[in-house]
Structure formats: structure tokens, C-alpha cells
Specification:
It contains 10 helices and 14 strands. With 281 residues, the chain is α+β, with helices and mostly antiparallel strands. Strand 13 and strand 14 form a beta hairpin. The protein is globular and about 70 Å long.
């Protein structure tokens, strides 16, 4: 079973900075966004240097239970483990567009935003979620954050209170016809002829980890690539001992394993004990 420590070590051992060039030759991928998604998939599966596509696919089957896309989140789910959402930015400080999905501290199988295939890919009710956020130029990966949702996002009740209040307000408008929707609302037959519909969609954004966690880490302009992983100490301590020992004995220049305190997303005056893994080259 894979995890964030294994992915971190795999990237440390194979820091592919010129992402598009690397994957264009292997998979005919010609854009940084898709190359980033494949790099993350390879990092968790341990297949960054695997040239045999059949071997890669068999490994993916062993490691992953689900692969989604932009319209069907999450991007990946590890078997009996975490979900992974991949986001690409072209500015180190720009906000992250989440579109119709609000930020998630956890992923729940009863979410209406998930496909039937995702809900039934394994027996699960709740998963931790890792937001992997890459800052890229046209071809180059400059930095990569891997941060757990419970260090980054508030509990779902915070977001659903806003969503439900908006939806209930829309549904209270008199003399219009509403229809069932996963969005904030959908109004049918707005005009007297009954030929106009209105879709009301949420467009959620969340601040960049470089901004959110600037009290823990400052972006280093002097480095060609930097990787930062952030997870609660409880999550870290629950990962396999052999993986933690492998990380802590890496002995690679530019690698740090730090004890930090993260602001509780539900109550920022409280700090959550956390681990921050850093690699700079």
C-alpha cells in the first residue's frame, strides 16, 4: 500500500523538474498539467522510471482503486488509503480553483459530487484527502505542495452551511419552478413562455499553500525545485514504521523532517501538531 512518505521519497530520488520534456518522450504528453498528473500517479506507484507501459498499468491496478478527472473528482484514490486531488498553478501565489466542489478536510462516500464508480470502487465511507498543488511554467515544475485536507480546509459543516443557506434562499423565490440538481440551484421556465432555464453554480477557490502556510515555510527563489508535504503528527505516526524510518534515514542534501504546529482550520487559535517534509534542490 502506498502513502505520502513513499511518494516523497520517490520524488526525492527522481526529481523530474522538466516535466513536459520528460513525459512527452514517454507518453506523448505535451502540456504541463497532464504531465503533473502523471508524475503524481507515478510518484505514489513508484513507477517514475518504469518504461514498460504494461508494468506501469499493472502497478497502478495494485496501488489505486479509482482514477477520476477534472469533472469527476478525486483524481486518484489509493486502495484502502487516501484520496488525491491534483491542481496545477502557473503562479506561486495564485488561488486554487475548486469550481463546484467546496474544499474538503475529508472525502465522504455519500457526497453527491462523486460518481457511482468512485463510490463503489472499494468498500469505504471516509478517506483522508491529499491536495497536491504544482506550480509550473510551460514545461517546468517549480514547486509541489502535498497537504492533507484536515490541515488545510475546514470541516464540511462550515462550507455546507453557506451552500445550504444559498440554496434555501433560491428555493424560496415565489412563482418559479425548481428542479433537482447537484449545483446550488436550477430554475426552470423563468420566463412567461417557459423556454428559459437558470443554472446557479458555485465557484469555490482556496488560497495557495504558499500563502496559507507562510508562517511555516517561505518559498525559496534560489532553488530550481522544492517539495513540501504537510500532515498531522497523528497521521504521520499512523503510517508504517518502516516508511518513517526510511524517510528519517534518507541522508539526502536538501531534505528536512520538521515538527511544526498548524493552525486548526476550524479554530485558528488552536495549533495541531504536524509534520512538514521539505526537499529543495
Amino acid at each position: 500500500m502506498s502513502n505520502i512518505i513513499k511518494a516523497f521519497i520517490n520524488i526525492v530520488n527522481n526529481p523530474i523538474v522538466e516535466l513536459t520534456d520528460y513525459y512527452e518522450g514517454r507518453n506523448r504528453i505535451n502540456n504541463a498539467g497532464k504531465a503533473l498528473e502523471v508524475y503524481i500517479q507515478d510518484a505514489f506507484a513508484g513507477t517514475i522510471n518504469e518504461l514498460d507501459e504494461n508494468v506501469r498499468l499493472r502497478k497502478f491496478t495494485e496501488i489505486y482503486s479509482y482514477q477520476g478527472n477534472q469533472n469527476n473528482p478525486p483524481d486518484l484514490m489509493l486502495k484502502n488509503s487516501d484520496a488525491i486531488e491534483v491542481k496545477k498553478l502557473q503562479s506561486k501565489n495564485s488561488a486554487i480553483a475548486l469550481n463546484s466542489s467546496y474544499p474538503k478536510a475529508k472525502l465522504y462516500a455519500d457526497s453527491p459530487m462523486l460518481t457511482k464508480a468512485c463510490k463503489e470502487c472499494e468498500d469505504w465511507d471516509e478517506k483522508d484527502i491529499i491536495y497536491t498543488i504544482g506550480y509550473t511554467s510551460d514545461t517546468k515544475l517549480n514547486s509541489l505542495w502535498m497537504v492533507y485536507g484536515d490541515c488545510f480546509c475546514a470541516s464540511k459543516e462550515i462550507y455546507e452551511r453557506i451552500k445550504d443557506t444559498i440554496t434555501n434562499g433560491i428555493n424560496s423565490i415565489p412563482d418559479v419552478e425548481f428542479t433537482e440538481t447537484k449545483e446550488l440551484g436550477k430554475v426552470k421556465k423563468v420566463d412567461p413562455l417557459g423556454i428559459t432555464d437558470l443554472r446557479i453554480r458555485g465557484m469555490w477557490h482556496i488560497d495557495n499553500p504558499n500563502k496559507v502556510f507562510d508562517y511555516l515555510y517561505k518559498y525559496d527563489e534560489s532553488k530550481s525545485f522544492q517539495l513540501i508535504c504537510l500532515l498531522s503528527k497523528a497521521k504521520y505516526d499512523g503510517l508504517p514504521l518502516e516508511d518513517r524510518e526510511a524517510l528519517e534515514s534518507l541522508g539526502v542534501d536538501g531534505v528536512e523532517v520538521l515538527d511544526v504546529g498548524v493552525k486548526n482550520p476550524d479554530n485558528p487559535v488552536k495549533l495541531v501538531d504536524a509534520k512538514m517534509l521539505v526537499f529543495k534542490v
